[in-house]
Amino acid sequence: MEEEVFEAMLTFIYTDSLPKMKRRDEAAMAQHLLVAADRYNLERLKLICEDNLSKNIDTGSIANILLLAEKHSCHALKEACFEFLRTSRSLNAVMETDEFEYLIDTCPGVIKELMSKLISLELELYWRRKNRKKK
């Protein structure tokens, strides 16, 4: 564990708050702290990190965040990632990244779950539209 991460974790343990950090460093620190929080069973810190990461999802970070969510059983974070990928525009952009290819290779179960959710959503929309036309 990096020294900065360890210090931030200790700060949280003793003060119930995280140290101030530069905006651009927050997401990276949240990823490292999530791993540490899971390892040391610091549930509140883990939830704070999940929340921070879910607010910073973008096409460049989502594959890594989804991998973290899967490895560390962060169900809300995983759902936030799936929600981000609901639009075909987001999904297409993410699918073109090397990180997504890595995710396919290392976590095929996550990809299967994602596809299942997307198909279910499409079917639900289809049936809603079809039922509206009948009325």
E-strand count:
0
Q: How widely separated are the two ends?
A: 60 Å
Secondary structure tally, helices: 8
Under CATH at level 1, the class stands as Mainly Alpha
Q: What is the chains' assembly state?
A: single chain
Series of H and E elements: HHHHHHHH
Range of helix content = over 70%
Average pLDDT over all residues: 90
Which sheet architecture does the biggest sheet show? none
Radius of gyration: 18 Å
Commentary on this structure:
It holds the Pfam family BTB. Belongs to the Tdpoz family. By secondary structure, this protein is mainly alpha-helical. The protein has one domain (3-134): Serine Threonine Protein Phosphatase 5, Tetratricopeptide repeat (Alpha Horseshoe). Helices cover 79% and strands 0% of the residues. It has eight helices and no strands. The chain has helices spanning 3-15, 23-39, 43-54, 62-71, 75-84, 88-95, 98-106, 108-134. The radius of gyration is 18 Å and the shape is elongated. The mean pLDDT is 90.
Question: How do the strands and helices of this protein lay out in sequence?
Answer:
Elements: H1 3-15, H2 23-39, H3 43-54, H4 62-71, H5 75-84, H6 88-95, H7 98-106, H8 108-134
Condensed summary:
This protein is an all-alpha fold and 135 residues long. The protein has helices at 3-15, 23-39, 43-54, 62-71, 75-84, 88-95, 98-106, 108-134.
Q: Key terms for this structure?
A:
135 residues; mainly alpha; Serine Threonine Protein Phosphatase 5, Tetratricopeptide repeat; 8 helices; SKP1/BTB/POZ_sf
